[in-house]
From TrEMBL:
Residues annotated as domain Phospholipase D N-terminal: 57-148
Coiled-coil regions, chain positions: none
Region (Disordered): 34-59
Protein name stated in the entry: Alkaline phosphatase D
Cross-referenced InterPro entries: Metallo-depent_PP-like, PhoD-like_MPP, PhoD-like_sf, PhoD_N, Phospholipid_Metab_Enz, TAT_signal
Bias kind Low complexity: ranges: 34-53
Originating organism: Micromonospora carbonacea
Limits of the PhoD-like phosphatase metallophosphatase domain: 162-508
Length: 527
């Protein structure tokens, strides 16, 4: 990947652009582009920066399937996006795809859905943006790569990493402490994809220029205007994502590893739910629904996620793995004591809950990974109320536990096997085993929930376990005090490797430098 110095990135700043285009590759017949015309919209600024366009924040890919991938970039001005894709690292013989015009309506960001790809291969791509004023004048290109998912009948193994919680609790990019170096460790694993389990940014976490650590050392944050206050405007929410991409380790990682992103609370504000009205003097706009709409737009612009439709979705990686990405925010009920008996309330909402049960029953994958950005059995308080699924009462399911009792019971009765939950949120790493023999309910199949994080934020924990579903903490690695800085460690990611022959599911819970703190291997169901 062509290197970008920090000064160039800061100078490029946050103009504003958009678009989604589709194309085909390697023999597919219907190459096409959509979502933008040949000219900028009427709202585009009349002035143009001098010289060639500049790609300001690198390249990314996401939501890769067996035959397609999203490719993303951002320019410093309106321009036409072009993408070349090839099997070869030198891009010889690459297929050229005409992408959308990037314009201020989406902060000059844009995506191309590349279609017709060969399954189960590492492919290489190059992105540039062409000036709208000077035909043929293009930016310096940036390169990246991604691995497509195995086909429906492929037996290639799958390897991926997951974590969450990026740049939180006042701990931003500190070059003196190596920046967000956990992304370098994750990159060295060479995963097929990265599952970000929420808190992709901390829009409610302003950064100070310096923080004094307990041992007297000074943590010096790189600070931008958008990270100097809580995000309220669309430009400020966009600035949260732009900030993270100032880190060289993160930019190099996302250029090589496709992402699967879900959101949690800090993309908007701490512990939010629809309809909430804040009582926080830092905010001039206190209607959470207004803030969430702006945050959702920035999330969709600055990350390689599908445009439109719900955030919950299923991604298939051949016969070995289906990933079910949950949205535990958009349909969330208000935080209260979480002991109600109303089965219509919950975190997921009726439609998402029905979708999850239906798709789990339909799945024929050996393993069904459920990406739940809020853990099932850990108690996550919100002041005197409850933020998560559990509430600390080990008895029969109540409140939001009713939803998961329904999901677990319905899949158990349908004979669904191979369900594993992956989560973050609580800022430490742990392995929980759930068993009806220890639970207040009996009609579910034993399963594991693995917790990771933070990627680069304050470390906390451990949280109390709720006994309703019979969890046992088999492993925990948590800091000695609250909000331990990344300089002191306790930053974590998880790695999953599914063997192509045996189907065995191996989990490593790793630290910031990639050392394995704990591991286990789950045999494929029926073996």
């Amino acid at each position: 990947m062509t290197s970008l110095d920090r000064r160039t990135l800061l100078r490029a700043g946050l103009a504003t652009g958009a678009g989604l285009a589709g194309g085909t590759l390697f023999g597919a017949a219907d190459a096409r582009a959509a979502g933008a015309g040949a000219h900028p919209p009427a709202g585009a600024p009349a002035w143009r920066p001098a010289g060639r366009p500049v790609l300001t924040h690198g390249v990314q890919s996401g939501d890769v399937t067996a035959d397609s991938a999203l490719v993303w970039t951002r320019a410093d001005r309106p321009g036409r996006m072009w993408v070349e894709v090839s099997r070869r690292p030198d891009l010889r013989g690459a297929r050229l795809l005409r992408g959308p015009v990037l314009d201020p309506s989406a902060d000059c960001t844009g995506r191309v859905r590349v279609r017709g790809l060969p399954c189960g291969e590492r492919l290489h791509y190059r992105v540039s943006v062409e000036s709208l004023d000077r035909h043929g004048v293009r930016s310096e290109p940036l390169v990246g790569s991604f691995a497509t998912a195995p086909g429906a009948h492929g037996r290639r193994g799958v390897r991926f990493v997951w974590t969450g919680d990026i740049a939180g609790q006042g701990w931003g990019i500190a070059p003196d402490f190596g920046g967000m170096r956990i992304f370098q460790a994750m990159r060295s694993v060479r995963p097929d994809f990265f599952l970000c389990s929420g808190d992709t940014v901390y829009a409610d976490g302003p950064l100070a220029e310096t923080v004094t650590l307990p041992d007297g050392r000074i943590w010096r944050n790189l600070v931008t205007p958008e990270k100097s206050k809580v995000a309220e405007t669309l430009a400020e929410y966009r600035g949260q994502f732009a900030y993270n991409l100032l880190d060289e380790h993160l930019r190099a990682f996302v250029a090589e590893v496709p992402q699967v992103n879900q959101w949690d609370d800090h993309e908007v504000t701490n512990n939010w739910y629809p309809g909430e009205v804040l009582a926080d003097a830092r905010y001039t706009e206190q209607r959470v629904d207004v803030l969430a709409a702006r945050a959702r737009q920035a999330f969709g612009e600055w990350l390689p996620v599908p445009a439109g439709g719900p955030l919950y979705r299923k991604l298939s990686y051949g016969p070995l793995l289906d990933v079910f990405v949950l949205d535990m925010r958009t349909y969330k009920d208000p935080n209260d004591g979480n002991t109600y008996a109303d089965p219509l309330r919950g975190l997921l909402g009726r439609e998402q809950r029905a979708w999850l049960v239906r798709e789990l029953k339909r799945s024929r994958a050996t393993w069904k990974v459920i990406a739940n950005d809020l853990p099932i059995g850990l108690v996550v308080p919100d002041g005197a109320a409850q933020e998560g699924v559990a509430q600390g009462d080990p008895g029969a399911p109540a409140g939001r536990e009713l939803e998961f009792a329904e999901v677990l019971g319905a899949t158990h009765r349908a004979g669904v096997t191979g369900m594993v939950f992956l989560t973050a949120d609580v800022h430490y790493t742990a392995a929980h085993h759930y068993d009806p023999a220890r639970a207040a309910v009996a009609d579910f199949t034993p399963f594991w929930e693995f917790v990771s994080g933070p990627a680069h934020a304050g470390a906390f924990g451990p949280n109390a376990l709720d006994g309703t579903f019979g969890p046992q903490a088999v492993f925990v690695n948590a800091p000695p005090r609250a909000n331990t800085s990344p300089a002191e460690g306790f930053q974590h990611f998880g790695e999953v490797a599914i063997d192509g022959e045996s189907g065995a599911f191996t989990v490593h819970l790793r630290d910031r430098d990639g050392a394995s703190l704990w591991t286990t291997t789950l045999p494929a169901p029926g073996r």
